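Researcher: Good morning. I'm working through a list of sequences from a screen, and I'd like to move beyond sequence-only analysis. For each chain I'm collecting a predicted structure so we can compare shapes side by side. This is the next one on the list. No need for commentary yet; just the structure.
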Amino acid sequence: MDVEDTATYPARLLEVYGPDGAPPLAIERSICAANDGGRWVFETSGPAYPFEDRSAYARRVADWARAVLVERAT
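Model: Good morning. Structure tokens for this chain:
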């Protein structure tokens, strides 16, 4: 996966909404990698799904393709 971004402070976000999510937006799971003023931050909220490779999150790198590997559900 090749991610090109020309934004000054790029970010990648995955949010899952559903009936069990927290009000007011009903977000069940959120994963974010963002350039916060020149420093990359990585955050998650909500319980991880069984198919997530959570060991990949420990690396916390700026490259979205490595920072957030959410799936191999085939």
